[in-house]
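[job 0412] stage=complex_fold ligand=zinc ion status=START
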Amino acid sequence: MAVKKIVRTWDNDRLIEENIDFLKQRTKKVQFPLTDRSRQIIQDLIDSYRATPCAGIAANQLGYDKSVFVGMREDIEVEDPEQDLDDVKPRQDNCEVYINPQIDRVDDKSTQRGSEGCLSLPDLTLFLERYDKIKVRYYNMDGKAIKKPLKGFISRLFQHELDHLKGNLMFETALGDIGVEKDQDQKQLDQLSQLIKYLQKK
Ligand SMILES: [Zn+2]
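[job 0412] stage=complex_fold status=DONE, emitting structure tokens
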């Protein structure tokens, strides 16, 4: 059992540039059959996911350069489709390992708006527009491809975690205007604007 520390872009009042640089790198594909190292990374993801109130964690949020995330399998616990991604405590068995995930198709006429938080952007909640109906593919631990259509909360979760694995943060890929919660603390908005400035310099 290894619950790992989350790689954060900021802490209190300062940006953590080495963490930002790491999260901005695209992760590498997982090879099959799984190596002992890959199995250990996946186990750390599962342990950390179960110990953290969240809907999903991407490998690079734990400091691992691999294209895999662990997250909810079903949105049975989510009553409101706009539910904040970061404000969910799933049942222990509502857990799926998504290896080398990708989106095969999007229905670009179907979009959704919802609030999103991110463990790597502490205490910030944004309203983001994303695709709703998507067709995805990922691999299970045996290397078997799983293809399925997603919509609603799980679709948003998949897009958020896939963004991480591609080296993007949630505000970089949103479709429309980005909204801010009414009671959002100014401190995190200042950190976000510093972060955006830092990324623009790159
Ligand atoms: Zn995130």
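The first strand starts at residue 10 and ends at 11.
[job 0412] exit 0
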